[in-house]
Amino acid sequence: MGEFAENLERIALDLIKNMVRGDATLRVPQNPASVVATRPFRRVSYNNRRSRHSFCLLVYMLAKTHRLQVHGGSYTVRGLYYGDPQLFRSQSRIASARLDVCRMLGTSPLQLGVLAASKGLMAGNIRLLMVNGDVLDCSSYGGAMTLPTDPEKVDSIETQADLVVIVEKESVFESLVSGNIFSTFGRSLILITGKGYPDCCTRRIVYRLAHENRLPAYILVDADPFGIEIMHTYRHGSKAMSFSSHGLATPSLRWIGLHPSEIPVLGRQAVALGTGDNKKINDLLARSDLEPGVRQELRIMQEVQLKAEIESVIDFLADDYIPNKINRKLYL
């Protein structure tokens, strides 16, 4: 067995020792991005009625993860839930237990083997060759395909594309595909969307395209703080999983828009920021891994108190906006 399984067994042995002393407690590392220095761990105890259910789910998830490490295979969050819905109560509780185990082991859900159904879509010149011999071929299909739930079962990626374009929203993705961007763009490309905040699978495929296939990757998001956070998630990893971004983050990702500095020329298509928007701006500005250019754009948004959606440039997105930004290197 590998180090991963040994770490799981070490956690189990520590738990048994605690239980002998009458203390059925597991320690879960806090999120490093929000941890208080004096409380690096959160205690989940069977002896505490408020955390008893969480404790049971955590032990269950540790056992399932160990089984995967010994025997191989994978589970889905959905599959586990429908195996015993009365025990789990909701899929979100399984997802929370999975994230806690990831923190305990310092790893990502992909390495854990307990996977959420992929929500990402891809289209364009790309073929995924799976380890079981299957081929997911967008080139011959001609439309959008859902990314595989487990990207580690993708043996290799074949493509003759020149670049990757990621769009925040499914609606924009569908608009570009239906508008046949692949024949009008002028260069061969792969189009990807994570349908908002990207899951691990989408981020892993983007990472592999950038690193294994050495393709330049560009991203288009709304000119609002949540769009910028989505861009930052692709580039540096999610805040909730800041402990494990290796193989998921793509620092070379280029942000082509919408940039808050473009908002003044959009006129009536820009709308006022809300309280939640301003709070999110402050949260982002407090991050230490924010690039100077991104920080400046956030301050511009904070100053003008306006935001805009990608749809405000949808009429000339494929023919003008995207190629102009890429060819003239107008990205951050």
Characterization of the model:
The chain is an alpha/beta fold. The chain has helices spanning 3-20, 52-71, 77-83, 85-88, 91-105, 109-112, 138-141, 170-178, 181-184, 200-211, 225-236, 275-285, 292-304, 317-327, and strands spanning 25-29, 41-45, 75-76, 114-115, 121-124, 127-130, 135-137, 145-146, 154-158, 163-167, 189-193, 217-220, 254-257, 271-272, 306-307. Strands 8-5-11-10-12-13 form a six-stranded mixed β-sheet, sandwiched between helices. The chain has a three-stranded antiparallel β-sheet with strand order 7-6-9. Strand 12 (217-220), helix 11 and strand 13 (254-257) form a beta-alpha-beta unit. The radius of gyration is 22 Å and the shape is globular. The mean pLDDT is 88. Pfam families: TOP6A-Spo11_Toprim, TP6A_N. Residues 164-326 form the Topoisomerase 6 subunit A/Spo11 TOPRIM domain. This is DNA topoisomerase (ATP-hydrolyzing).
Spatial extent as radius of gyration: 22 Å
Strand count, sense and closure of the main sheet? 6 strands, mixed
Q: So what's the oligomer here?
A: single chain
CATH class of the largest domain: Alpha Beta
Element-by-element helix/strand order: HEEHEHHHHEEEEHEEEHHEHEHEEHHEH
- The averaged pLDDT comes out at 88
Write the CATH architecture name of the largest domain: 3-Layer(aba) Sandwich
Give a count of the beta strands, DSSP E runs of length 2 or more. Answer: 15
